[in-house]
Amino acid sequence: MIHADVVSKAREMSIVDVALALGAADGVKVNERGVPCPHCGGRDRFSVDHGKNVFLCRASGAGGDPIALVQHVSNVSFAEAIEQLTGERAIEARRAPERNDEQQNWYREKARHRAWNIWQNGAPIEPERRGRLVRDYLALRAIPFPAWRIKALREASQLPYWHFANGEFTVVHSGPAMLAAITGPDGRFMGVHRTWLDLSRPNGKAVVADPETGEILDAKKVEGSQKGGKIVLRDTLQVMPPAALCVLGEGIETVLSWDALNPDNDAALWVGINIGNVAGKAAEQIPHPSLTDTDRIGRTRRRKVGGQEPDLADVDCLQVPFGLFDRLTLLGDSDSDRFTTQAAMLRAKKRFELAGHSVEIDWAPDGQDFNDQLRGRRETRQAGRAA
Ligand SMILES: [Zn+2]
Predict the structure, then answer these.
(1) Distance between CA atoms of 177 and 132, rounded to whole angstroms?
(2) Which of 36, 180, 273, 321 keeps 20 to 30 A from 231, CA to CA?
(3) Which residue(s) pair with 286 in the sheet?
């Protein structure tokens, strides 16, 4: 259970006092005067708006109320930030998540380097800069090539697909791929999302199989980290005036399809990579009304899925800075299990609302995702022309 009064107590503390307590320079007392960020430094990237009681760190894109400020500077969960501010717990006591040890950080940094190399070797996607793979892939999916420049997408003509089996990594496929840069809450590159393409197939995605077992592997894979990360397809400042709406969906195709279905929108477009990252951990698991699992000794049980209540101790899931947008729209695909997806989407909505956002869910039509809807329109148009 979340104690709303403790959350508002933290939120209503003076942003100036909190910034000073966290080490911001005295100049921060002057409304909107830029000073170095107490977390990521710089010269004048950090400022506070006294009236709105929010901060903005221009370099990282982080911003928001006193809770978000503590999260930015101290790298703690929503719940921990509230406890630091008020000395009270916003949720029932729970074991703090285990901190990463040095070895884990070492592995993570290695993976980030590999990811960075893949990204750096990628080529531009724009047709005028000789990009063609992403253009042709999007065309297959009925997605018009974006009119603005997407800095977070690149393409590779021959990318090896490494697969771990029987204790070793082997290359099981090599071919063209779409690359997407994943950035963290501080704006730093943290990983690369890859979609292997096969433009001779109707959905444009490669079929990659484990050569030993024949098992079909996911055509999408991340190198580096994705937790807490996002793919920014359109930046706040790429539209004028700066975007008031942020649209957040799970996949690149979903978000670009939504954009095509809503012409003339001027939203910032974010991809949350996977639903767990968007929704965050659940406070409890709830039984699914129809799905069951059978264990090894043959017992059948109702499947448990994440419930609607967010676990505010989750430090790793995606954060949207408060104060950057007026509204947040979450995209819900209706093509996977509705009960599970709906619980996750409602959990995401609650989590973002607690962080101060005004949130709506836009659902794709029953049984479809936004790309199905977009493709359906193209077919209707083509049928109309043929008739
Ligand atoms: Zn900063």
Answers:
(1) 11
(2) 36
(3) 305
Among 55, 86, 117, residue at a domain's last position: 86
DSSP type of residue 369? -
Count the domains in the chain.
Answer: 3
Question: What's the gap in Å between 154 CA and the centre of ligand 1?
Answer: 27
Dist CA 210 CA 197 (whole Å)? 17
Residue 249 in any domain: the answer is: no
pLDDT at 116 over 90: yes
Question: Could you tell me if 289 and 352 lie in one domain?
Answer: yes
User: What is the Å distance from ligand 1's center to 324 Cα?
Assistant: 14
Furthest C-alpha separation in the chain = 71
Which residue is associated with the tokens 């966290």? Answer: 22
Determine the distance separating the centroid of ligand 1 and the alpha carbon of 40, expressed in angstroms.
4
CA of 41 to the centre of ligand 1 (A): 7
- Residue 87: predicted pLDDT: 81
Ligand 1 mean position to 299 CA, how many Å? Answer: 52
- Same domain flag for 107 and 184: yes
Look at residue 94 in the predicted model and tell me its pLDDT.
41
Report the amino acid identity of residue 235.
D
Does residue 23 belong to any structural domain of this protein? yes
Ligand 1 centroid–CA 318 distance in Å is 17
Say what angle helices 66-74 and 78-86 make with each other, to 10 degrees: 110
| Residue 86 near residue 9 (C-beta atoms within 8 A) | yes
Ligand 1: distance of its center to the CA of 120 in Å? 25
Give the residue among 146, 124, 252, 275 at the shortest CA–CA distance from 193: 252
Percentage of the chain modeled with pLDDT above 70: 96
Cis previous bond, 241, omega within 30: yes
- Same domain, residue pair 371 and 336: yes
Same domain, 300 and 357: yes
Q: Are 263 and 300 in contact (CB under 8 A)?
A: no
